[in-house]
Amino acid sequence: MTLMKSLLAATAVLALTAGAAQAKQLVYCSEASPAHFDPGPLTGGNDFDASSHTIYDRLVQFEPGGTATIPGLAESWDISEDGKEITFHLRPGVKFHTTSYFTPTRDLNADDVIFSFERQWKEDNAWYAYLEGMTWDYFQGMDMARYIQEIRKDDDLTVTFVLTEPNAPMIANLAMDFAAIVSKEYADQLEASGDLASFSTQPVGTGPFMLVDYQLDTVIRYQAFPDYWDGKQPIDDLVFAITTDPSVRAQRLLAGECDIMSYPAPADIAQLQADQNLTVMEQEGLNIGYMSYNVTEAPFDNVNVRKALSMAIDKAAIIEAVYQGAGEDAKNLIPPTMWSYNDAVAADVYDPEKAKELLAEAGVTNLTTDLWAMPVSRPYNPNAQRVAELIQADWAAVGVTANIVTYEWTEYRERGKAEDRKGPFQIGWTGDNGDPDNFFATLFSCSAIGVSNYSSWCNEEFEDLIQKAKTTSDQEERAELYRQAQEIFKAEEPAMTLAHSRVFMPMKKTVLNYKMSPLGNHSFKGVDIEE
Amino acid sequence: MSQLQATPVADKADLGASLREFWHYFSVNRGAVIGLVVFTLLVLVAIFAPLIAPHSPDQQFRDAILTPPVWDAMGDPRFLLGTDPVGRDVLSRLIHGARYSLFIGLFVVVGALFVGVILGVLAGYFGGWVDALIMRVMDIILAFPSLLLALVLVAILGPGLFNAMVAIAVVLQPHFARLVRAAVMAEKNREYVTAAKMSGAGHLRLMLVTILPNCLGPLIVQATLSFSNAILDAAALGFLGMGAQPPTPEWGTMLATAREFILRAPWVVTFPGLAILITVLAINLIGDGMRDALDPKLKRS
Amino acid sequence: MLNFILRRLALIVPTVIGITLCAFFFVRVLPGDPILAMAGQHGVTPERYEILREQFGYNLPLWQQYFNYLGNVLQGNFGVSLATKRPVITEFMTLFPATIELALVAMIFAVVVGIPAGIFAAVKRGSWFDQLTMGVALTGYSMPIFWWGLLLIIFFSGYLGWTPVSGRIALTFFLRPITGFMLIDTLLYGNWPAFVSALRHLILPAVVLGTIPLAVIARQTRSAMLEVLGEDYVRTARAKGLSARRVVNVHALRNALIPVITTIGLQVGLLLGGAILTETIFSWPGIGKWMIDSISKRDYVVVQSGLLLIALIVMAVNLAVDVLYAVINPRIRVK
After folding, report:
1. Which of A320, A321, A406 sits opposite B245 (nearest CB)?
2. A531 with A525: CB under 8 angstroms?
């Protein structure tokens, strides 16, 4: 016991002296290790937090705490009359990081921008497959190659994106993480030395922080970039303490081992809120948790059966038990914070009696079905297994027997895509760029069948509306089209929209100016810490 | 282990006598008797679970989510040990969970025993390349840490209780095979075996009827140990999300799914763990008692 | 002696081949497609899929893939992680010291507490101390350690605040790894407070991981000691009027420890298995957590080579224990 006390005293003294002598340090307890530090091919939010939002910048960025696009490395941009050319004017004098492995000789220019995209696009580019077995997931997944015809250098600081057709969401797409601007000069240097793989482990960007050290699965250390174009950051050192278990993260925050943490378990939020040293910021998440019916499979091809099954589910109980209050009943596919949200759509009602009637009318008796539950926790659905257990009990009350099935996460999505999948399928989505197209077209367009349209639902009317909205540039016109689309969606019930979750960000009271992003990323640009 | 050897079994009267002797030594061991009592209670609880449990293990009381145990000020007399995150009675789930745990233990032990004994007898009796082949395979299985191997096997077979049991049986059976092989090798050149051989007994008869019953002592002890190991491993797999899948009231799975509530609702985590501990401890106490009762050296002192 | 070692080595060769076969085929029958696992949410185009299949040799017959794999492994090439694209062997070498450090400290804890407890229990056979120790030991032996770890975190880190929650060292210390062993590195840097911090971070995980070995060692020591104390030469020594302490120290202990050493050696596989659970609970960056993460991420290459490397290490340790046992106990060599 005495030993323990003296050990404690020793570390306490040390912590004090170290704190006084040291530069301002912010410790962030993050939820997972990044695969590496090149945001181009990556897909995970944790990957982007560790690379795109610290080390890199994009031509346009999302405003801190919002989804509106603001100038980034491009000071301004013009869109041509026909909507097919976007010309970006680059910010002059933007410096790349000087590190132990690279010293830049020039500022950012058009070549860097072109290289950043062509490496993801042109198969003959030396960097197209610079890591074993890599794919440019976002660039390909968003079909960028179909929409971009050419990226043209007009002069050193002017770049024009020539599009194949007008594309309203393009600017927002370019603010996404995969569109980070990398250094061509650094790439050339590595290419000359033959060590291409280092591009992903020893990154060079223009961003607010420089990578200092990464200890696998343990800790990432960054240092503020002194020559950052938007001014040096208020903090000097940024540390990501990788802690995969949410309860352990909460414990670490409570114990003062970190200053701020991501994704608290819903169960821990009350305790974190009660702690007088902590603030828990919260925000509507830009997400949707839903359950897709396969509309090509009987009896789910009958809209009344789909409605009856949705009606039999006590959503309020699920939101209470699984989201623990940190969720909001979803009546539409998009969350209420997104423009074009249709508030006129009637909310779902819980009515087991009516559900029984509808099922009886449809001639469905003794229905036995699979009920799919994701094996992982996602912000839009913290515990799909528990949701499934609750739905199972609700359905049992209307005479429907559900067998819960689950698979490993990749396998789960693969099997879910199959057009002959049996049974309703839980899934969800977190917005990438704040554009409604990113929800409607990605999740329920006809071309997404077999990709991410888990309902295999192809409704002509709905499809016309969302395709028209995509090529229209006037936002109010687009909003009206999407509002109509939401009404069709509700009338057809291809999926039961379950909830939009609230996102929480607990931190010490000493953390200043942190802004939560509705897109779910964690950026520490502009954050300060009170000493 | 090597000092364990029972005398050749002869007729039924002898068997009765040795059982009485076994019980005599076993009952002297206070811990073993306590273990046996607890275990018997558990078996009864498992058998009569639907009668004993105050509620159905799957019934969700939506108005009583995460109710603390009854002794807490916030407790509800309907739920002695509180409720879980979807409002199911923890006590009822624990009671039904006893069925799973005991079944897992039984299944794994029977499976591992069956396969292990066959392989061990074959290897020990025939020797030569049969022995070499079987034993190398056992070496390979034993070279992997058992939990890791079980995890990979479950990943291959797909998560679920049955697959988890199969995987655990696979990783536990080499211990039986090794034990039986050693015993068979020790026995096969003894007089009574030679005598049986002379009188024209076939391989099968020699292996199963003549030699095997004389290796029973160590086998029983190993089986008891494996019983408790199987329960622990299945719970560990459940904890890692690879064992029984929710809403099965298996104890390890209950613990895993409730883990996030460890601060807010400690009872949903504490009781399943305690149930595992008590069960495993009871079985290990019995195992200790049996080993002592079957071990001639300890009898002497 | 040399003969004995050679014979043991010859026995190992088929086992090692078998292990490579297992590691290879286990992973090949894992559900899911490695190419799809490599690609992200959006999947890959059919053309790209074919290119990747060829690039990774997944289009070849299975036996040919096996021999390619074996050839690579013999050259020290264990493949590249699908998730991070880093060589598996590099990741293994980075994370392995953390596991070794944890396992060694756990073992030291088990030995330092377990052996004296076992000896004392044997000497005072039947006393309350004996009964208590053996009761505690059996409880430890029956412990679901994942649960035990959670309880300890809640009590010592959460409630009392005595120990850190997670990690290997306080984040205020930034030491680039030299050996990868935090306790050694901090000493090499001459940073005493960092050493203390590393030690504090080790306490809980080591206690959790050491619980079962501690129980096994205490029980084994006690029974080995009882056996030796019953031997004729010890009785003679006693009869000659040697003090109890001298009998225990000089005569009994040395002989009793032989089986205990074997027991310790045999705990290595168990420790690595236990490390999976302990590292998961404490977010300890070692190979146990790495393996379980890779299994759940379907990082086939890591699972394959990780299994192989771990099995080889367990075998090497078992071999070393056998040899050591033969050295201290010559009788075994004749067998």
Report:
1. A406
2. no
